[in-house]
Design goal:
The complex is a heterodimer of chains A (287) and B (91). By secondary structure, chain A is α/β, with parallel strands linked by helices. Chain A has helices spanning 4-59, 92-107, 120-129, 145-160, 210-286; strands at 76-82, 112-118, 131-136, 166-176, 179-188, 205-207. Chain B is mostly beta strands. The chains are: A alpha/beta (287), B mainly beta (91).
Chain lengths: 287, 91
């Protein structure tokens, strides 16, 4: 039986770990709420924009031939991996890295695949195996549309000047606090809008022309797409961390209970031992 | 007519207004009640509206009042008006 002091030390160390994990869980829960609200707040904008773009491009007669919809033979691929700056979030970051590797070895095997990483954790690992052309950790400090727009513009530039033939984005899609879905989206070239039931736009006035409006809307829609990916990723991160920390707290509770039981057994055994010794001593004196 | 101003970060304004003036890429124009349906790109400039719609809490400082008009600066955007409802997507 381990001695009492040893067990006591372990109990207190498990206890302080538990305090940390449960505090982290609480912090994540609060941040998750904020991040979820942020996702909801951008929904009206992105929905309206998508609707406009779909309606307009559906009524355009020919393919607009935008420089962003140019389908080229794919030789050079850029993968934008959105991870987090901090760990202790379960499989949140490793899922993204796994998906990135799957793209390199699977879908784009034999092609040149470069990375842009948003988030420190993804950068730390991907730079060991692949070529990371750029990394940005600061974006998560204060996630704003303007900062996102800058990155999106850079991506558009890289595509339109021919540096890359295809740009993919990998991020954790936020489903609910316990579920994150690793999502791979094609960022550029833009996919033709899905055929949807289109409202008649016949009696609208267009200023400038329809084509020019579509041209103007595409960059906005791309920026919004990236922004949505980032917001989703942030919410997913907090959700994943909350779940991971919840499990860690549960495990620590279990461990502490087991140790307490062991401690009490050991204590009882030592008391019994002492009594036996005293009784034995007294009997020896009496005899 | 009903006005909504939304940005990617939040919905800023919603409510009834009398008139809206926006900086279209081909020049500033004003819309009154029952304006014909229009879709337009906006350039950087001022969106002005007359009336008292609800302005989201925390964003009031971005709106200036000048006479009986509210003024909001945008860096560009898109506008759709149909059925007496104006939606400004501001960047």
């Amino acid at each position: 039986m381990a001695n009492l002091k040893e067990i006591r030390n372990r109990i207190s160390s498990v206890g302080s770990t538990m305090q940390i994990t449960s505090a982290m869980k609480m912090v994540s829960a609060a941040k998750l709420k904020k991040a979820q609200d942020a996702i909801t707040a951008m929904r009206p904008y992105s929905e309206k924009l998508t609707e406009l773009l779909q309606n307009l491009s559906a009524t355009l007669d020919s393919d607009s031939g935008s420089k962003y919809s140019d389908q080229r033979e794919v030789n050079k691929v850029l993968v934008v991996a959105i991870t987090s700056n901090r760990g202790l979030a379960g499989a949140f970051n490793s899922n993204i890295i796994k998906e990135a590797r799957r793209l390199v070895d699977g879908s784009f095997a034999g092609k040149q695949v470069d990375f842009i990483t948003l988030g420190k954790k993804g950068n730390d690992i991907l730079k060991k195996t692949g070529k990371v052309v750029e990394n940005n950790n600061a974006i998560f400090d204060d996630l704003s549309y303007d900062a996102t727009a800058e990155i999106a513009e850079k991506l558009m530039e890289l595509f339109s000047n021919g540096s890359y033939d295809k740009i993919m984005v990998i991020y954790n899609h936020f489903k609910n606090a316990a579920t994150q879905i690793v999502t791979t989206e094609q960022f550029l070239p833009i996919l033709p809008p899905e055929a949807s039931e289109t409202k008649s736009t016949g009696d609208y006035i267009f200023e400038p022309s329809k084509e020019e409006i579509v041209e103007g809307l595409i960059p906005k829609s791309l920026k919004t797409q990236l922004f949505k990916g980032l917001r989703d990723s942030v919410a997913s991160e907090h959700g994943a961390r909350m779940t991971a920390m919840h499990k860690a707290t549960d495990n620590a509770t279990e461990l502490r209970d087991a140790l307490k039981l062991q401690y009490n057994k050991a204590r009882q055994a030592s008391i019994t031992n002492e009594i036996l010794e005293i009784v034995g001593g007294a009997e020896a004196l009496a005899g | 007519m009903y006005l909504e101003i939304v940005t990617p970060e939040a919905s800023l304004v919603s409510g009834e207004v009398e008139s809206v003036t926006v900086p279209g890429v081909e020049g500033e124009f004003q819309m009154l009640n029952n304006h014909a349906p229009i879709v337009s790109l906006l350039s950087a400039g001022k969106v002005k509206f007359k009336g008292n719609p609800t302005i989201a809490e925390g964003f009031k400082s971005k709106f200036k009042q000048e006479g009986d008009k509210w003024i909001f600066e945008i860096n560009g955007g898109t506008l759709e008006m149909s059925n007496n409802k104006v939606i400004v997507l501001a960047d």
